[in-house]
Write a structure and sequence with these properties.
A 5-stranded antiparallel sheet has the order 2-1-5-9-8, with no helix packed on it. Helices cover 17% and strands 44% of the residues. The protein starts with a helix and ends in an 8-residue tail after the last strand. The protein has one domain. It is α+β, with helices and mostly antiparallel strands and 174 residues long. The model has no long low-confidence stretch (mean pLDDT 86).
Length: 174
């Protein structure tokens, strides 16, 4: 006889756990899922020339990717509690600052003709797995010049989604 009320209580606990999980998932989806940050990395396009079936010279764009030689990341994380009926979910606001430097290898080590490298089309990129979680404008500074980041990546060789900005690695702030 006593198993009946125990079974009813167990069913209620199970139902509340499922409801809690659904509420946490709902809040997280509106706020943004967990984040994985990739980079920063420098992407530089270059041309590879070939002759097509008719003997006409064509080219494909490929990309060189450079990772920073040194990288420092400073962050500040603030928890925020969100409530939905009886349930609560803890979300985190994080402000990150990246600093570092890129050292480009000598042109001879790149296995690319230097004249085919499009330095004026170089991009500074940062992979971010869930852009819904971004609440403020992302500003990137390269060689002392500030750039506003744009959504998307020029290539998915290193990261699937993220932000990028067109830079000129040879230009410096005056």
């Amino acid at each position: 006889m006593l198993l009946i009320p125990a079974s009813m209580v167990t069913g209620l606990i199970r139902e509340r756990q499922h409801r809690r999980d659904a509420v946490v998932k709902e809040i997280s989806q509106k706020w943004g899922n967990s984040q994985t940050i990739t980079g920063p990395f420098l992407t530089v396009p270059f041309k590879i020339f070939y002759k097509d079936d008719r003997g006409k010279t064509q080219f494909n764009l490929n990309y060189l990717h450079f990772l920073p030689e040194t990288l420092n990341i400073i962050g500040d994380m603030t928890p925020e509690v969100r409530y939905r009926s009886l349930f609560e979910a803890v979300l985190y606001n994080t402000r990150l600052t990246f600093s570092g430097n890129f050292t480009l290898p000598p042109a001879g080590q790149l296995n690319v003709e230097p004249k085919n490298i499009l330095w004026d089309k170089a991009y500074l990129s940062l992979g971010i797995t869930d852009m819904r979680g971004i609440r403020e404008k992302i500003v990137m500074t390269f060689n002392g010049i500030e750039y506003d980041a744009n959504p998307g990546l020029k290539t998915t060789d290193i990261a699937g989604v993220g932000v990028n900005t067109l830079i000129n690695p040879c230009r410096r702030r005056r």
